[in-house]
Amino acid sequence: MTTHTPQREYFFDSIRAWLMLLGVPFHLSLIYSSHGWAVNSATPSLWLTVFNDFIHAFRMQVFFVISGYFSLMLYLRYAPSHWLKMRLERVGIPMLAAIPLITLPQFFLLRAFSPKAGDWDHFTLYQKYNALGWDLISHLWFLLVLVLFTLLGYLLFRRLKQWGQNTDHSESSWTKLTLIFLTWAGMWALFRRAILLTHPALLGDGLFHFTVMQTLLYLPFFLIGALAFIRPDLKTLFLTPRPATFIGALLAFIAYLLNQRYSLGSGWLYELDAIISTLMGLWMVNVVFAFGHRFLNAHSPRITWLVNASLFIYLVHHPLTLLYGFFITPHIASNTLGFLLGLVMVFGCAFALYQLHLRVALLRFLFSGKPQRAKG
Questions:
Q1: Residue 272 belongs to a domain
Q2: Residue 39: inside a domain, yes or no?
Q3: Separation CA 48–CA 45 (nearest Å)
Q4: I need a surface site. Which of 207, 234, 285, 292 has the fewest CB within 10 A?
Q5: Could you write out the DSSP letters of every residue in 263-325?
Q6: Of 239, 44, 74, 60, which is closest to residue 154 (Cα–Cα)?
């Protein structure tokens, strides 16, 4: 175990919490966007479609960079076996608890009220398995990917530390990082296209999508986040505002919007999406980290509360959003008003549920993965 504990970096906590909480406006705006979802408003909203695309284009990439940073930080603080046990509990227990408590009831909600859920009674055995794979993992997919990243970290972090410390630190640059991430995204795109040409049904398999495709897509963000903890030059690169990355992120987002509108049918929509969102996600690391370091790097009890509450709020907001979409959205003519009212109602209900769950020790454990100390 290491004896040195670095000073708390509050801006990382703040960014992580806000990225988690962005899941609420993301899914609420999805109702009012032109993207087909489990529930949609009668007419789509252009600004909410663009807003939804913006969140989707960078949020999880930046989140996994922070996850990699904290994962290696904790790995160096504890014995590897203890780190593995602790991380699997913190990530795996909330994921497993959320399946019967959140996504399973949500599955029955979708079957009852969403025409896009399909005709379950006429599904084949595989179709039922696959539907459960998509719907039970649902918005928990990032926890599943974090479990896989934890297992990979257990195998790779020691070598990653040695490689990072033995590499010439003067080599870090945005040009080099961009080329590396562009190459990775291009390889991912070719891999997906090869599967599409040889085994297209595999891309519709929910478990394969989450465990293989999503894991491979976000792996470089997790690893670069881990490297940033042991490479001061890399961390400085992320925290120093660079106009080129800001402009690059803007241009990438414009390309993302164009791809969503024109690469349809038999086009390369998903492959181009991966390449564009990978580059935008990388450049948005600089935008988000520089902004967070400048404006959010201070201790605040309210931010601490949000950090502690963010995972629970993310887990429960999805069914709350669906309930809002099914029962309230049809009665509000204005998309903008419906979106704003949805934010108030979903956040309000999620905050209330969070406070209620704190009163039950078993629920606190299930949704945090942390052993609960007895009160003396």
A1: yes
A2: yes
A3: 5
A4: 207
A5: S-TTS-HHHHHHHHHHHHHHHHHHHHHHHHHHHS-S--HHHHHHHHHHHHHHHHHHHHHHHHH
A6: 74
The DSSP code sequence of 121-146 is GG--HHHHHHHHHHHHHGGGHHHHHH
Report yes or no: 349 and 309 within 8 Å, Cβ to Cβ: no
> 247-279 burial, b if ≥16 CB within 10 A, otherwise e?
ebbeebbebbbebbeeeeeeeeebbbbbbbbbb
What range defines the domain where residue 336 resides? Answer: 10-366
**Separation between Cα atoms, residue 264 and residue 286, nearest integer Å:** 31
H or E element in which residue 150 lies = helix 141-166
The label of the residue with tokens 């966007």 reads: 33
Asked whether the beta carbons of 306 and 92 are under 8 A apart, the reply is no
Whether the model clears a pTM of 0.70, i.e. scores above it, the answer is yes
Residue 5 belongs to some domain of the structure: no
Three-class SS of residue 172? coil
Among candidate residues 58, 31, 27, the one with its CA nearest the CA of residue 45: 31
Residues of the chain whose pLDDT is less than 50? 1-4, 374-376
Calpha distance 159→97 (Å, rounded)? 33
* Residue with tokens 């979903």, as numbered in its chain: 346
Which residues, other chains included, contact 237 with Cβ-Cβ below 8 Å and sequence gap of 6+?
172, 173, 174, 177, 286
> Can you tell me whether residue 21 is helix, strand or coil?
helix
Q: How far apart are CA 217 and CA 97, in angstroms?
A: 26
Type of residue numbered 200: P
- Smallest CA-to-CA distance from 90 within 374, 373, 367 is with 367
Spatial neighbors of 339 by CB under 8 A, at least 6 apart, are 25, 28, 29, 31, 32, 45, 48
Q: Angle at CA 157, nearest 5°, toward 225 and 12?
A: 25
Cβ contact 144:95 at 8 Å: yes
pLDDT, tens digit (0-9, with 9 covering 90-100), for 325-358: 999 999 999 999 999 999 999 999 999 999 999 9
In a domain, 2, yes or no: no
